Amino acid sequence: MEYTQEDIKKLVKTSQDAKNNAYCPQSKFRVGSALLCQDGTVIKGVNVENASHGLTICAERTAICKAVSEGHTKFSAIAIASDMKDEFIAPCGACRQVLCEFGADWDVYMTKPDMTYKCMKVGELLPLSFTSKALKEDKI
Description:
Layout: H1 5-18, E1 31-37, E2 42-46, H2 59-69, E3 75-82, H3 93-100, E4 107-111, E5 117-121, H4 122-125, H5 132-135
Parallel strand pairs: 3-4
Antiparallel strand pairs: 1-2, 1-3, 4-5
């Protein structure tokens, strides 16, 4: 799906708005995401913390899981938002791997609250990624 500069602004704004629903009683570190499916559908996600920290799920993975559960597996872009004033929010390693499961050549918009952003391809964020191709390789 081709998308415009206006679409990017809306996606960034949606990710910023989504973080208002973040469930983060321990860290108080709100994260929101907006996932643009290739058919134009936008799926929001937020981080959902758990007292057992390893069970916390990030906003990006929430959006991916929601999208897949609704039948979407082809994505054009994702925007990620937090309250960090001076740094762009970047996906953690686990989220990078999950994003890569759906291809390396789609856009990740890492934002700041002032609506500025930095864009990178999923494959740039996770070079030398482990993909399903490895599962099909000849083995000893």
